Amino acid sequence: MNDVLLPQVNNNCRFCNFNQWMPAGVRILNAAVNYNPFSVSVGNVNMATNLDQGAITRYSQINQGYQTVTLSGSNGYIYLQKSVYIGDGMTTIAIINSASGLDVLPISDTACATNSFSACIRVANLAYYSGDINVGLGNVVFSSVPFRDVTSFSRVSAGNYTARISHPQRPGNMLLSVPVNLSANRIYTLYLMNWNPSPDAIQTFLVEDRRS
Predict the structure, then answer these.
(1) pLDDT per residue over 1-17, tens digit each?
(2) What whole-number distance in Å separates Cα of residue 93 and Cα of residue 67?
(3) How far is CA 28 from its chain centroid?
(4) Within a 13 Å sphere around the CA of 149, how many CA atoms are in the beta-carbon half?
(5) Do domains 1-21+112-212 and 22-110 have the same CATH topology?
(6) How far apart are CA 157 and CA 171, in angstroms?
């Protein structure tokens, strides 16, 4: 029996975080499924008050060093408090599902050399329920990307692509085909997230940045 392809959910976030380098810059991405929106603080900085799943904040400058990330609900209930090291570069702190409920994952937002003909892209697997995932983009293939893993950047020609997403065990069974437009002189992170607690329920979130 052939598996039924689930509805495509494609969040394409272009220019939503168009930033140059910011010392100790932090932004928050909510990739956790089956929770109400969060209020999020890092140290004494309020980062968001109603951050829904699949949403990302802009960068805020945070004091370098260990800071406590606090996730709470609208009623003040604290879901998680965790100490995270904030370096001198830029960091995305992803809220993710875990075996104990919730966790946060710091992701270093590094640079990648581009030019007027090329872009850079990497893949971050934040889909707790899906395990390893393949992502094909033109001739570039990110193979068996584990949950919580962020690949290195690959440089590609700017233009229109289709991101082909599958499980490594069944690479011919496409879970999702997502149109992706990559502009020159930009770098991208393609985040993979669940949209419900099912291995095949995968959505994408493309974030574009500029580093120079």
Answers:
(1) 334 334 444 455 544 55
(2) 12
(3) 10
(4) 15
(5) yes
(6) 24
- Provide the strand spans (E) within 7-116: 10-13, 25-30, 38-42, 45-51, 60-61, 65-72, 78-86, 90-98, 101-108
CA 152 – CA 89 distance, rounded (Å): 17
CATH value of 22-110 in 2.60.120, 1.10.760, 1.10.10, 2.60.40: 2.60.40
- Residue 74 is predicted with a pLDDT of 85
Which pLDDT belongs to residue 35?
96
Name the band, by pLDDT with cuts 50, 70 and 90, for residue 211.
low
Give 195's Cβ-side CA count (13 Å radius): 16
Q: To 5 degrees, how large is the angle CA 31–CA 37–CA 40?
A: 80
CB 211 within 8 A of CB 21: yes
Average pLDDT over residues 64-88: 95
Contacts of 204 (CB under 8 A, 6+ apart): 9, 10, 11, 12, 163, 165, 176, 178, 190, 191, 192, 193
Domain ranges of the chain: 1-21+112-212, 22-110
Per the listing, tokens 């949950």 go with 147
Q: What is the pLDDT of residue 3?
A: 40
**Distance from C-alpha of 155 to C-alpha of 177, rounded to nearest angstrom:** 20
What's residue 19's pLDDT?
59
